[in-house]
Amino acid sequence: MKAALLVEPGRIVVDEIAEPVVGPGEVQIAVGGVGLCGSDHSVFSGTWSAPSYPWVMGHEAFGTVVAVGRGVPRERIGEKVVVEPNIACLACDQCRRGWTSACRARQSVGMNRPGALAERLVVPDAYAWPISGAPEDLVCVEPTAVVETALRRLGTPLPPSVLVVGVGAQGLLMVLALQARGVSVRVHDVNKERVALAERLGAHQDGTEGTNAPFELVVDSVGSPASMNAAVDRTQVGGTLLVLGLDGRPLELTAQTIVRRQLVLRGSLTYDHPHDFEASVALVAQGRFSPGAIVTDEHPIDDAQRAFDQGTSAPGKTWIRVAPTG
Ligand SMILES: [Zn+2]
Ligand SMILES: [Zn+2]
C-alpha cells in the first residue's frame, strides 16, 4: 500500500509498504483522508521523536471499513467511519476511573502505533465510529472531541463572553464550540491571517471593541510562555484558565500570580473513551456542528511533504486526501 513515510525529521517520502494485518476484534480501514494537527507537526519537526524511522504519522482519519477480524460483524464492511485514535487499555487504574485519556498503556495512532497517512489502517472495532459527511467535517471530528471534552470537563456554566488565546485549528474549533453554546468569543493571536479567519467565523479580536474588561474564562490553545502570559493577563480575579496547548517549555507563571489572582487552572487532554468521542460524532453526524469551516488547505498524499511544510503557516486546518475519491 502507499504510505507517507517520515524518514527523518522534516523529510517525507511517499512509498509502498506492507498492509497492516487485521487481527481479532479489529477493523481494517481504507483511509479517505487525514487532518493534520499540532502534534503531527511536533513529530514531523522532531520536537517529539517518532518511535522509529521510517514512521507513518497522522491520526485525524476517516475512511471505509474494508475488512474485519474475528469477532467483528461482517456487516461493518462498507461502513464509512472516523477513527478515535487514542486507544485505551481499559484495565489500568486511570481507565477504571474513567480517565482513559490518562491510560498508562495508551496507544496513539501516528504517535506510538502506525499512523493514518497510508492507504490502510487497522484499529480496534470500537475505535472506528460510523459516520458519513463532507471530508472537511470528518477530518475535524477528532479535534472537535478535544474541545468538546474540555468544555465538558470545565463542568461550570459558561460566561457570556470568553477569550481564546491562539487560533490555530484547535483554537478555531474552540471558537465554534463556544459560539454554538451562545457565547460571544474574543480571540488573541499574533498571526493576523488566523485572527482574520476567526473573525470570518464570527469571533472578534480582543481589545478592538472598546472595553478591556478581563474575562471570567480564558482558553489557551497554545500553552507557550508568551501565550500563557497573555492568557493570565486577561483573566479576571477568581477566573478560570483552560489550557489545551501542549508546549513543553517552562512557564513564567508563578504561584504568587495564581494565588494573588485566585486563578483556577484547568488542563484538558484529548477525551475519554467511549462517551466523549461518541458525543462529538453525534454532533457532527446530525449536522448540529460543522467543524469543516476551519479547513483552508487540502493536499493529495503524494504532496504530503508540501502539506507539512506549509501546514504551520496555513491560516486554518490542512488535510491530506489519501484515497482519490475521498
Ligand atoms: Zn489531533
Ligand atoms: Zn488504561
Task: Walk me through this protein's architecture.
- Helix 4 (141-154) packs across helix 5 (169-180) and helix 4 packs across helix 9 (275-285).
- The protein has ten helices and 18 strands.
- The chain starts with a strand and ends in a 5-residue tail after the last strand.
- The longest helix has 14 residues, at 141-154.
- The mean pLDDT is 96.
- It is globular.
- By secondary structure, it is of the alpha/beta class.
- Helix 10 (304-311) links the parallel strand 17 and strand 18 (317-321).
- Helix content is 26%, strand content 28%.
- One zinc ion binds at residues 88-89, 91-92, 94-95, 103-105.
What is the topological layout?
Blueprint: E1 2-8, E2 11-16, E3 26-35, H1 38-45, E4 55-56, E5 60-68, E6 80-83, E7 86-87, H2 93-96, E8 107-108, E9 120-124, E10 128-130, H3 135-138, H4 141-154, E11 161-165, H5 169-180, E12 184-188, H6 192-200, E13 204-205, E14 215-220, H7 225-233, E15 235-243, H8 255-260, E16 264-267, H9 275-285, E17 295-300, H10 304-311, E18 317-321
Parallel strand pairs: 11-12, 11-14, 12-13, 14-15, 15-16, 17-18
Antiparallel strand pairs: 1-2, 1-4, 3-5, 3-9, 3-18, 5-6, 6-10, 7-8
The structure holds zinc ion (ZN) (2 copies).
One zinc ion binds at residues 37, 39, 59-60, 142-143.
Strand-pairing-aware structural class: alpha/beta
Low-confidence stretches: none
Hetero groups bound? Answer: zinc ion
Q: Biggest β-sheet, characterized?
A: 7 strands, mixed
Q: Which overall shape is indicated by the principal axes computed on the Cα atoms?
A: globular
Order of helices and strands: EEEHEEEEHEEEHHEHEHEEHEHEHEHE
- The share of residues in extended strands comes to 25-35%
* First and last CA, distance: 16 Å
**Total of helices:** 10
Quick check: average pLDDT? Answer: 96
As a percent range, the share of helical residues equals 25-40%
Round the Cα radius of gyration to an integer and report it: 20 Å
- State the total count of DSSP E strands: 18
